[in-house]
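This part of the workshop introduces the protein records we will be handling. To make this concrete, we reproduce a full record directly below.
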Amino acid sequence: MMKHTFAAVFVLSALTFCHSAQARFLQSDPIGLKGGPSTYAAVSNSPLMRIDPLGLRDIFIGGAGDSSSQIVGSYYAQYHQSHPDSNYFTWDQQDQILALVNSLNKNEPINLIGHSYGGDTAARVAQKACRQVDMLITIDPVSRFHGHDYADIAAHAKLWVDVNGTGGSAFQISNFIAGLGGAWNSGPQGFATSYIGADNVHADFNGMMNAVGPGARSPIQVLTGQTNDQ
């Protein structure tokens, strides 16, 4: 692998991609092909012409079965087209997500967006990360096998947006499954920076990403920096 000499400022801005001590590129993308078939997608496939100043910041995490249902996966695929600095994992890839988060420069923002069991995974990654994450978005989160310390979750995120799906009956299929899995329901209320009760069923990830509450912007507005007028 060819060595290069970098100006200090370039090393800092490109820290995601190079080893500052060795002054060599370790790989084009620190997560390899997990972000898609092109390892230069973060710079729109133009590594010589563009940079990725914010790093790989938006991390979507699907719930159980999302590999087949694509509830989050399909949303991410569309989002990724306009936000190449984004990645997708499933709820059972906590170790890989944590490794990515801990590999990023401390000045690069980290936004975790998880649905169902993926919401629980996002929260646990935030709790275990080596630094506070910038944004945590939990969309109708679910977990049964361990307790939830909502105060501790809040302490590990600069901003936490939680959406509780309240639409449909308890016997609606996705609501029923979420109930069996251990839905958080209104538990995060009073702990999350922004709590939204949304009239959506559990499987309606897209609807809940666009849900607003009294005086609260939707998760997608918060994530992309939009106002209520946009």
Q: What stands out?
A: Confidence is low (pLDDT under 50) at residues 1-27, 46-56. Residues 4 and 154 are 42 Å apart (CA to CA). The beta strands are 18-19, 24-25, 58-62, 86-90, 111-115, 135-139, 160-165, 194-198. The longest strand covers residues 160-165.
